[in-house]
Amino acid sequence: MRWEGGRQSGDIEDRRGLGPVGVGGIGVGGVVLALIGYFVFGINPTTTLNAVNQAGQGAQQQQQQQVAQGRVSDREGQFVDVISTNVDDVWKPIFQQAGRTYRPPASVVLYSQSTGTGCGLGQSAMGPFYCPQDQKVYLDLAFWRELEGRFGATGDAAKAYVIAHEMGHHVQHLLGADQKAQRMGARGAESGSVRLELQADCYAGVWAAHASQASNGQVSLDPSDIEDGLRAAKAVGDDTLQRQATGRVAPDSFTHGSSAQRMRWFNKGAESGDPRSCDTFNTDEL
Ligand SMILES: [Zn+2]
After folding, report:
1. Which ranges constitute the DSSP H helices of 65-176?
2. For 217-255, what is each residue's pLDDT tens digit?
3. How close is the Cα of 127 to the center of ligand 1, in Å?
């Protein structure tokens, strides 16, 4: 995958040097919820985090005074900047054609271990996530190591897919899909939250389809990169995660969809390049 030299918007909030915050403030319940969050990888964290105490809020205010927002100088940070900017550049014209205005997320936050968010305390054990309350994407880059080591999803394209999936949740927030999902309920294999996750996968595919065109070729994926993206989608499917964690699959508690479903919806978006093909809310076939 090619990305060096791609446009950087500089909307990166770099909290990596600050270390963990507020961990002492969460009770046992918070820790348990955070562990559940681990398996759901990037779920809209409000459901997980609402129950976590308010320690994160104070920590967030304290942090915001210290955090510099702007360009990052290291290669890992630049990668996140280039990809998230490219995702913005893909969605802007798509919104425009539909007579809407796309607004990028408030920022992409890089942090280590734990950080305050508009949704409560964020922890790296939850995996990457999007917080609709502050409209920010949260990433602990230690997840990249996990993606490679634990899930065997290597390559920049696998990481880019994760970023595009989280940005997909932002697109959903702008379009009101997250509220729709909430109304449908959160439990079961065909729940609103599964439909929301599969749609974010499909939106990641839509990004992949337009990445090169939106960057004049500065960001480009070849067919093997698409394979890497599919492998990442497969790796983070709930059945794969559950099998690794418990040795068995329990479809009832799926929150993201199976590996096969995730690959199918990513592929749908990547093949059509059209977000209208991502209507996971009006189909009987997930
Ligand atoms: Zn997600």
Report:
1. 75-97, 142-149, 156-175
2. 999 998 888 888 888 887 777 676 666 666 666 555 557
3. 10
